[in-house]
Structures are given as C-alpha cells and as structure tokens.
Design a protein that fits this description.
The protein is mainly beta and about 475 residues long. Helices cover about 5% and strands about 50% of the residues. Mean pLDDT is about 95; it is low at about 1-10.
Length: about 475
C-alpha cells in the first residue's frame, strides 16, 4: 500500500489548498485518489475524513517537528510554517509580490480527541491600486496616507479540525471545505475548490455503509465584514455511501435555510428532500445528487454524478425545455500506475472529466437568500450555472517529492440571465419560460503546466496558466 512521506502527514485527509495555506505537499488529494485507483483498498469518497494511520505512527512521523511531546495519553507536534509567493492574474489585472505568509501548524491527540490547526498571517504588495482577493476571501488594504507612506494588504487565514472519535461515530468541528463524490475537479454537490467555511460533521460507518451528516455556516455577501452578512445562511447535508469493493454508490442531499435555522436537519436519518416541504419556499433551497464509481484492475476508475436542483416533473426533466429543469451532470475517468525506477517510486496517471451545469442551478427566487453558495461562489461546480467544462490532467510524482503535471481546460460559460448563482429564478410561469444553454458562448481554452518539489522542510511550486485567464503562481515554502 502506498503512503506519502512523513512531512505531509496529518490526522485529516483534506481537500486541496489551491490558492492559500499551501503546505509542503502540492496535491495531497490528487494522490489520495491515485492511491484509491491503484491499490486494492476500501474506497471512500467524502473528504475531509480521518487518516487513521497518523495516530499509530505519530511518534515516528513527527519526531522532526520544532516542538514534539508524546506519552501514552496523547501527543502534540508544533511547527512554524510559511513562505513567499509571486502571483500574477489576468482576471484580477494585478501582480502580487511579495506575498509573505507565516504562522503555526499544530497537530496532536488526547485520548480519543484529534486536532490540527494551520493558522497564518499574510502580508502582500499589490500593484493594482484597487486590489482584489486572489483567494476570494476578505482582505484589508492599508493605504499609504494612513501608514506613514507604507502601503500593503494584509489578512489572516486558517483551517483546522477538532474531532472526537467515539466507538460508533466521529464528530468533527472544522474550518475547511467538504468534497463529496468521486470527481476531482467537477463535483456538483460539494466541491473542494469552494471557499472554506465553518462546519460540523458526524460520520458513522457500519460495514460497507458510511453516513455523513453535516452543518455549514455560510456567508452571503463576498465581503465577509459586510453588515449584510448578519443574516444567516445555514447549510445542512447528508451523504450516504456504499462501498462494495470495486463499486461505490453515493447519495448526497443538501438543504440551505436563509434567516432560519433548524438543527433537527443535522440528524442523519432525516430525509432533507422531504423536510424541505416543511419550510417557507422563499427561505429554503435544496438539492439531491447520485454518484457511482467503478474501479477496474487497480489501474483505473470510471465515475459519474447526477445533480438535481429542481424539476416540475420527470417528464419536464427529460424534455429539458424550460427553466424549471435545473440539473447538472458530470462524468470522469482516472487511470494510474506505479513504477519502480532506480528503486524509487514513480506515480503516473491521468484524469479527464466532463461537466454540464444547466442555467439557474444553485440559484433561488430572491437574490442573496438561500442560494447554494458561500461568499458569492458556488458550493459545487466552480464554473457555476449555464456552463460546460472539460478538464484533462496528466500528472506524475517521483520519490514522493518531484511533481510534474499538465492541466488542460475547455470551458464554455453562458452569459444569459441564469448564468450566475445570484440570478433569480422566476416565482411563477416556469413551464412557459424557455432556457438557453451556453447560447453563443465561445470556447475558452487554458493550459496549466506545473512543476513542484515537496521536501521535508522546504517546498517549491511553479504553475503557469496560458491562453485564457493567464496566471503565474510561484511559491517557496517551509515547515520546521
């Protein structure tokens, strides 16, 4: 069985950190998917979740930490973590350099409680006079007239987990991103590339069946300090997953409540798609999705997800000719194999995914209410409603340190009304309002080669995006 090096270990197998809080491992979830593809192991498709091997190997894994304490009741490891970045984005019309971050990375356990915290302060210089956030979260711009001629942008970010492991369940309090389903880029219900949020989850396992109940505390407006965010948006979700050796079935259901909260929805046996009818239509929104993954020959897996936001009837869904048919579909294929070169491990693979998201998906009847979104961005597929996406990546990792990948994306994004999460669904006459899917949208192609080194104490990443929304992202990081 394949495991990553000690420098990357954590009590939690988490989602990727693509734009902030980078660790010394470039793409941990990508290679977790590679491990599930190339090894005969139990396959689970919900993240974050516990890495049960970390606690057993903690004394050996964390002996190089700056501070390390271990006894029969628990352990604590603490490291300084940080780095310097150069970021340039055509979409933001900005260059950010230097971007310096630093903080502390804690992980440990006390009896049945496991925890981790990665907390950092960022200071950046933006060359655009009106800086925008690279990671889509709040930033504070300090102007030179208020700081003795020194102008900079600062903000703080953290992700963390505090989990209680019981004999029958695991209760986890976290700031992170949920990722449900077998896809990597284009999961439709909860997607790892969404903006992080505060959450609570309960995980239960009984043989091949896993049940996850989840609560998320969402913010409505993209300025997190806005007074408009005093109104609550509460997310509840359940995932039911059946892992049968090479075949994995999953059902995910979500319910969003605006200016309202019903903790009863956290109970795992509560069918959210039924409970939805017990609350005001204007203040709640929901979805239901089904996914399946088939693994073959420890070499590949093929998978798909169907997401249902709303429909007038099954017939209207098949006809798909009006705005009430709100659905999305994705499918993908991953191939992978491990080789031995000079007695070193070479992991090689490829992922290709297709996703189609109909207009008005994730939206609601009134703006800034019960949309399936956080800080103005979708919780699911990041291309949003009225989009079509093809992603293809070839990846490789040598000796668990050197990474090389090429990611291509073909994107068609409509601009008709119904293409943004805050576009409102009409409250009546649904069946007589036709919809247009990516009508007249041009194909936008981007190519992103990436080279990185993941060391025990230092890491380096260079990623360039060419052709559409050109970007440069480079980072030199450390953990001690």
């Amino acid at each position: 069985m394949l495991f990553t090096g000690s420098f990357a270990r954590s009590p939690v197998i988490s989602a990727e950190r693509s734009v902030n809080l980078k660790t010394l491992e470039t793409s941990p979830l990508l290679y977790e998917y590679h491990r599930l593809t190339t090894n005969d192991v139990k396959r689970l498709y919900y993240f974050p979740r516990r890495d049960s091997t970390w606690k057993n190997n903690e004394s050996e894994e964390e002996k190089s930490a700056l501070v390390h304490f271990h006894n029969k009741h628990g352990a604590l490891a603490a490291s300084l973590i940080g780095g310097v970045e150069y970021k340039s984005s055509e979409a933001l019309a900005d260059t950010i350099f230097p971007s310096v971050d630093g903080g502390i990375y804690l992980r440990g356990y006390i009896d049945s409680v496991e925890f981790m915290l990665d907390a950092r302060i960022y200071n950046e210089r933006h060359y655009n006079s009106t800086p925008k956030s690279f990671d889509r979260e709040f930033l504070e711009h300090q102007k030179e007239e208020n700081n003795s001629g020194f102008e900079y942008t600062s903000y703080a970010r953290y992700r963390g987990h505090f989990a209680i492991n019981m004999g029958f369940a695991r209760l986890d309090f976290a700031r992170d991103v949920m990722h449900w389903g077998p896809g990597y880029y284009n999961n439709l219900s909860l997607n790892q590339f969404a903006v992080p949020y505060n959450s609570m989850s309960l995980e239960l396992q009984l043989g091949p069946l896993s049940v996850v109940s989840f609560y998320g505390d969402l913010l409505i407006h993209n300025n997190s300090m806005s007074m408009q965010n005093k109104t609550s948006r509460n997310l509840y979700g359940h995932r039911y997953e059946l892992s049968l050796s090479n075949l994995v079935f999953g059902i995910s259901e979500l319910q969003v409540l605006y200016d309202n909260n019903r903790p009863w929805l956290f109970v795992p046996i509560v069918p959210l798609f039924m409970e939805k009818g017990n609350y005001s239509e204007n203040s709640n929104n929901g979805s239901l999705s089904f996914d399946v993954a088939y693994h073959f020959l420890n070499t590949g897996r093929i998978y798909s997800e169907f997401f249902l936001d709303d429909m007038e009837s099954p017939v209207s869904l098949i006809r798909n000719d009006n705005i009430e048919a709100k659905w999305a579909w994705m499918a993908g294929l991953q191939l992978g194999h491990d080789f031995r070169i000079w007695n070193r491990l070479l992991e090689l693979g490829s992922i290709v995914e297709y996703a189609r998201v109909e207009p008005y998906v994730y939206s609601h009847f009134h703006p800034s209410t019960a949309q399936l979104a956080h800080l103005g961005y979708p919780l699911g597929n990041q291309s949003g409603p009225n989009s079509q996406t093809i992603d293809w990546t070839i990846y490789s990792r040598f000796n668990s340190t050197w990474n090389l990948s090429f990611h291509s994306q073909w994107l068609w994004k409509g601009d008709d009304y119904g293409s943004a999460v805050n576009d409102t669904t009409p409250t009546s006459n649904h069946m007589n309002l036709p919809k247009k899917f990516i009508d007249g949208a041009k194909m936008e192609y981007s190519l992103s080669p990436s080279l990185s080194y993941d060391g025990q104490y230092v890491a380096f990443l260079l990623q360039i995006t060419l052709f559409h929304d050109e970007k440069i992202y480079t980072r030199l990081g450390f953990k001690w």
